[in-house]
Description:
This protein is of the alpha+beta class. The protein has a single domain (2-70), classed as Alpha-Beta Plaits. It is 18% helix and 21% strand. It has helices at 16-20, 45-49, 67-70; strands at 2-5, 26-29, 32-35, 57-60. The strands form two sheets. Strands 1-4 form a two-stranded antiparallel ribbon. The protein has a two-stranded antiparallel sheet with strand order 2-3. The protein is globular, with a radius of gyration of 11 Å. The two termini are 15 Å apart. One iron/sulfur cluster is lined by residues 4, 20-21, 23, 25-26, 35, 40-46. One iron/sulfur cluster (SF4) is lined by residues 4, 20-21, 23, 25-26, 35, 40-46.
Amino acid sequence: MKQHVTDPEICIGCSACELACPQKAIKSLLGRYCVDAEICQNCGNCIEECPTGAADCFIEVSTYYSQESQSEWTSLPT
Ligand code: SF4
Ligand code: SF4
């Protein structure tokens, strides 16, 4: 399945995605903006507002990464 995440190598920490999310599915942890996959409705608002394309990121997973684990990423998991 796909998980919506932000790319830590492109994100500049501007918070536009957090402000744009009607579900409040994005929060900042350790300065990283992380999507809660259980809450995200895939509306695309954050992707439209992101100035760098970092929010336009989807990875294939077997189980969702928590926001806490995402916050420790320096690059996308392989
Ligand atoms: S796609 Fe929509 S619901 Fe999901 S994190 Fe972005 S703004 Fe929030
Ligand atoms: S809008 Fe994009 S660049 Fe800004 S914090 Fe969110 S993911 Fe990072």
